[in-house]
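Lecture 7 notes. Example A: sequence first, then its structure tokens.
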Amino acid sequence: MTTTILPLWPHILFAILEPLSLIGGWLLPILDLNSFITDQIPQLVATHSTIHPTSVALAYQLANLYGLLCILGLAIVYSTTEPIVLRNYFIALAVADVGHIYVTYLAMGWATFKDVGAWNVLTWGNVGVTTFLLMNRILYLGGVFGVARASSAPSIWVDHSKASVAVKKRA
């Protein structure tokens, strides 16, 4: 069985559930572009039925980024044998989580943002799930779930036992 150096809960969350949610974020605009665009802000009534080509481009670019995050996340959590790599990765994601929540807030405005009962599925993903992931990243970084175990075993992606690195001394 392929595993990570993460403790059990962070492994389940960041190596299984989060990549699955990113696949969902990648697929949604492909399967239902109009809803993906128009549902970004709950309770917003579209003033016209055509979606601007810029919105289409941005939706597909966002989908592409979700796909990229999924691939990078899987590569990092399943290939690293170094706890510091995971720490730095989770710090970077936590910063991005704060940015994601903030720009969603800016687009929604305070009144819609605080009206949690009126949130739609996309808002729950953009704010609710992202906040849940952020809190779990912070708890992991704080050691609440245990620490990543350093591994001397070779990665599933690169056979480190056959790799060699030449280091030149500086004069």
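Example B, a different protein, same format:
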Amino acid sequence: MRIFRLPVGVLVAVLLTWFWSAPISAQRLSAAGNPLELVRLNRVVVEAEVVSSLDKIYLGLGGRRHLKAGTGMLFLMPAMAWQQFCMRGMLIPIDIIWIATDRVVGWHSNLSPQDQGTFTSPGPVNYVLEVPAGFVAQAGIRIGDRVQIGP
């Protein structure tokens, strides 16, 4: 039987290359397979599922039967623009928070699954956060509140 021996320097180099190229921490995912990110509004933290593809933006929270307190869905919109959302396929009441860069610019509160029509942002936004109905009032959210996405 022949034993192959690597010089220690080569072995160390291979191990260091593997160690430094491996991800330090795995991205956490929701039950629906969406990445999870912390969103801070003022001093309140929401654990949000993040969606950015057009099909996931279209689906949103449609069909979901629950949305726990302290959670939500963050939509990364393709452009800073006026955005329109509706309650199509919704089974739960929500608040919609409109965010431009890092500031709250408006919201629609206590939207029911039975609400018809379209809800439009008050100006161009690049993020939309959907949270359980009543969140805006409970958290004391105000126009101009700072928003931080990520750690």
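Note on Example B: The two ends are 53 Å apart (CA to CA). The chain has one domain: 28-149.
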